[in-house]
Amino acid sequence: MIRINNKQYNIIGGLLGWIWLAIVIIPIYYIVITSLRSQGDIFTANPLSLPRPTLGAYQRVFANNFLLYVSNSVFVTIMTVTIILVASFMVSYMIVRRSDAFSRTVYKLIITGLAIPMQATIIPVYYIIIHIGLYDTLWAIILPSAAFAIPISVMILVNFLRDVPQSLFEAMSVDGATEFQTMIKLALPMVKPALITVLIYDALNVWNGFLFPLILTQSASNRVIPLSLWLFQGQFTVDIPGILAAVVISVLPILTAYIFGRRQMIAGLTAGFGK
User: Fold this and answer.
1) Residue 11 binned pLDDT confidence (cut-offs 50, 70, 90)
2) Does the keyword Cell inner membrane belong to this entry (predicted)?
3) CB 131 within 8 A of CB 119
4) Contacts of residue 32, Cβ cutoff 8 Å, sequence gap at least 6
5) CB 179: neighbour CB atoms within 10 A?
6) How many Cα atoms within 13 Å fall on the side-chain side of residue 200?
7) Which neighbouring-strand residues pair with 233?
8) pLDDT attached to residue 236
9) From residue 154, how far is each of 103, 104, 116, 147, 150 by CA, in Å?
10) For 69-116, what is each residue's pLDDT tens digit?
11) How many CB atoms neighbour CB 69 within 10 A?
12) What's the mean pLDDT in 125-139?
């Protein structure tokens, strides 16, 4: 029988780790250095060599109303995540506190939404948005995005709330607290890691969302960042440095949020999916 000692395992694990690191780092490195190249250097220089840095691509990005698209994305993300957090938290609290046949049925119906792909419902969503008069507005992006994010958010929050001891809820009731006061003063602080998880996870999805902005908006004034990347594609040429410069700028806000909230996000996902 062939035995492999711990040292060999460590070497193999370290090698695989370095390979994975290279797979992740090299594309990021390429995006950043290419955004600092001129269009002419794209086809003449080594793609991984250090460029003669120029900010021309970033200047072209901001010359194309990019700040408007950033502000639209910020507004859509903030409003969508706010709706998701409020609705998901209140529904999750009801499901956990009632713990009867009705709440279990509601939970099952909500979780069923995880099995429905967004692409399969785009035509009904399109007709609904037109019928209620929201087509080509930012709310046409916000409402469907929030609706499709609620199922997974509820699943994460419900699993967190189920870990709160029932004795704490009973103590609040004995002290004369209303159900709303119990929800705000007890449940809300207890599920803070889960709320941060939902916030970051859904903010990432909404910020990078492409399908709803593409189908449900039309005018340039309602364009968000993913759609704005099309501006750098001409009829016969593609401004590669411009596209990658826009990508770098668009990633910075969401990357910052992830860096500061990654611990809570990992804790929330572990509890939300581990049951």
Assistant:
1) confident
2) no
3) no
4) 244, 248
5) 14
6) 21
7) 238
8) 55
9) 12, 13, 16, 11, 6
10) 999 999 999 999 999 999 999 999 999 988 788 888 999 999 998 888
11) 24
12) 95
Contacts (Cβ under 8 Å, ≥6 apart) of 151:
110, 111, 112, 113, 114
Chain centroid offset of residue 154 CA: 15
Rg (CA), the chain: 24
Dist. CA 11–CA 7, nearest whole Å: 6
Q: What angle do CA 63, 64, 69 make, to 5 degrees?
A: 120
> What are the tokens at 123?
């035509």
Residue 38 has what DSSP assignment? -
Distance from C-alpha of 79 to C-alpha of 274, rounded to nearest angstrom: 29
- The identity of residue 118, as a single letter, is M
Residues in the chain: 275
pLDDT at residue 58 in the model: 86
CA distances to 184, 187, 190, 256 from 196, in Å: 16, 14, 12, 14
DSSP state of 238: B
Cα–Cα distance measured from residue 149 to residue 121, given in angstroms and rounded to the nearest whole number: 14
Confidence of residue 1 (pLDDT cuts 50, 70, 90): very low
b/e per residue 42-59 (b: at least 16 CB within 10 A): beebeeeeebeeeebbbe
Give me the residues paired with residue 238 across strands.
Answer: 233
pTM over 0.85: no
Write out 164-232 in H/E/C secondary structure: CCHHHHHHHHHCCCCHHHHHHHHHHHHCHHHHHHHHHHHHHHHHCCCHHHHHHCCCHHHCCHHHHHHHH
Tokens of 186: 């007890």
